Amino acid sequence: MARYRLTGVSAWGVQWDKKDDDRELARRLLNLLSDRRMLWKDYSQEIEEHCVNSASEARRQLGVLLDSPEIGSEVSGRARAIQAAFRAFMDEVGPDDGEEWHRWRGAGTDRLSVALGRLRGVVGLLVGEIASTYRLDVSEDLATIVPDLDGWFFERDRAGEGG
Q: Model-level pTM?
C-alpha cells in the first residue's frame, strides 16, 4: 500500500508526495541481494577479493536503503541483520594473512567457503522471511539459499495463496 505525504496546498489544489511502503522497500532489498552472485554461485568459482568487494558494496547499498525515512521497523530490522551478516563475512575473511595453505584444502574447507556458507545461511533465512511476509517473488538464483526444510518457506507461501 502506497503512503502519501501532504507537501503543499495552493489555490489550484493539494500537492502530495508518494512515499514508498514497506513492501516496496522489501522488494528493493530483495533486488539488491539478487545482484550478489556471491550468495549463490558455486564456492569453487568465487575469488576472495571479489567477494569482499561485493560484500562491501552490499553493505553500502543496505545503508542507503536503511537511510530511507519511510522504512518501517520490520524491514529495517531484517536489513540491519543482513548488513551485519555481510559485516561478519568481511570480518571472518578479513585481510589475507599471506598464507596460501587455506586455498588448497578443497572446496568447502577454506575460510572463504566457510564464511560464504555462514553468510548464505543467515541471508537465505531472512530472504525467505521477507518474501513470505510481503508476498514477494524471489529470483531463481537467490531462492537457492532459502532454507526449504520440509518445505517450510515455499509450502507456507503456497498455503497463503489458497493452494
A: 0.75
